[in-house]
Specification:
196 residues, alpha+beta, duf1285 like fold, nine-stranded mixed β-sheet, six-stranded mixed β-sheet, 34% strand, DUF2946 family protein, DUF2944
Length: 196
């Protein structure tokens, strides 16, 4: 966390949190969601200012509920997740690279949703693969040790092809898209906790 953020937290510890205004899309873009975007359930405007994107990325964290947020000075701006808390891309030198610029690390698990999204897990980090990298990853999938083409993969996803699917030697497990957040311990659409 940036020092300026730590100082603001100490100076103003009780600033109300913000919900609905910031989102992370399935390609790793931060999106600002004004009132119109929120009301119409639109993704919002893609943030392109490098300094702002860097500030958000450096101050991105999760609370005890599994809700992800950007610490903006003394205020938490909670993030709506289109997919997972992190988005991964393939990188020739780093392997799997997160949207934050950090390396994912060695895979512990891989999950394939019924919607065709590939989820990578390393320790407690869940990252959906950016769909633009699917063509790079497909040749690395194996079913019972043999290369997988699109047709076979679709059959496996539908449960009509049997066998062990793997990615770089890591077993791939089927998961329903609506079960992913619970499995990963994250909240896709954070809301304010009920008053006590």
């Amino acid at each position: 966390m940036d020092d300026i953020v730590k100082q603001a937290l100490a100076k103003w510890p009780n600033v109300p949190h913000c919900y609905g205004w910031l989102a992370l899309d399935a390609r790793g873009n931060w999106r600002m969601r004004d009132e119109r975007a929120q009301h119409l359930h639109l993704p919002g405007d893609k943030l392109t200012n490098a300094a702002l994107v860097g500030f958000i990325t450096r101050n991105y964290a999760a609370d005890e509920r599994g809700c992800w947020y950007f610490q903006n000075g003394p205020q938490r701006v909670y993030v709506q997740l289109e997919a997972t808390p992190y988005i991964a891309r393939t990188d020739p030198s780093a392997g799997w690279l997160l949207h934050t610029g950090a390396a994912l690390g060695p895979l512990d698990a891989a999950l394939l949703t019924d919607a065709g999204a590939l989820i990578l897990r390393s320790a407690d980090v869940y990252a959906q693969l950016d769909d633009r990298d699917g063509a790079d990853v497909l040749p690395r999938l194996r079913l019972n040790g043999a290369p997988v083409d699109d047709e076979v993969l679709l059959e496996w996803m539908a449960g009509r092809a049997q066998g062990a699917l793997s990615l770089d030697g890591v077993a791939v497990e089927r998961i329903a898209a609506d079960q992913l957040a619970a499995r990963g311990g994250f909240v896709s659409v954070p809301t304010a906790p009920a008053a006590t």
